[in-house]
Amino acid sequence: MIIKHETLSLESSGKNVTYHEITDEVKKMVISSGLVNGQVVISSPHTTCSIIFEEYVHDVDWNGYEYLQVDLNRMLDRLIPRQLTESDYIYPGEEHVKFMEEISKIHGDSYPNDRSSILNADAHIRASLFGSSETFIVKDGELQIGSVGYIYFVDWDQNRKRKRLCNILLMGE
Fold first, then answer.
1. DSSP H stretches of helix in the chain
2. Would you identify the family this protein belongs to, as annotated (predicted)?
C-alpha cells in the first residue's frame, strides 16, 4: 500500500483571479510515487481557493488567460461581483474583523492588519461553489484525465499577493 503526501507552493498575483495549471506536477508525483492503481486527492487548505478540472484550450488572451478562464471570470463577475467596499456584502462582520486583527498579531505578514485585505466575500463564495478538492483515478500508473483534461489550482482572492499551498495525497498500490 502506498500513501504519500506532497505539497505544492504557489504564489497568487493579488491583482486578479490566479490560475495555476498543475497537471504536469501531479503526473510527475504519480510516477515518482510508484503508484500503479489508486487515487490522487488534490486539496486546498485555503477558504478562497479551489481545485478545478477543465479542458486546456490552448488559446489565451493578451493577459495570458485561457479563453475558458476568461469566460468563467466574466460569468462569475456577473453572478458574484467583486467586493470592493464593506457595503458590497455583509461579510466580514465586526467579530471576524477583531479575530483577524488578533491573528495578525500572532502570524504577522501572513495575516496583514489591513481591513481592505479581508474584503473578499466574493472569493469565499466562489470557492464554496467550486469546492476545495478533486479526486482522480490512477490506473496502470497513469492519471485518468483524458487527453485534454487539466488540473488547476485557483485563487479567487484578488486583494493581495500570497503564497498558497496545494496538498496532494497519493494512495493505492
1. 23-33, 67-79, 94-107, 121-130
2. Belongs to the UPF0047 family.
Domain of residue 141 covers 2-64+127-172
Residue 52 belongs to a domain with what CATH number? 2.60.120.460
Question: What one-letter code names the amino acid at 104?
Answer: S
Distance CA 88, CA 60 (A): 31
Q: Are 40 and 168 in contact (CB under 8 A)?
A: yes
pLDDT digits (tens, 9 = 90+) for 15-67: 899 999 999 999 999 999 999 999 999 999 999 999 999 999 889 999 889 99
Beta bridge partners of 153: 20, 51
CA atoms within 13 A on the CB side of 136: 29
pTM recorded for the entire structure = 0.91
pLDDT band, very low/low/confident/very high, at 97 (cuts 50, 70, 90) = confident
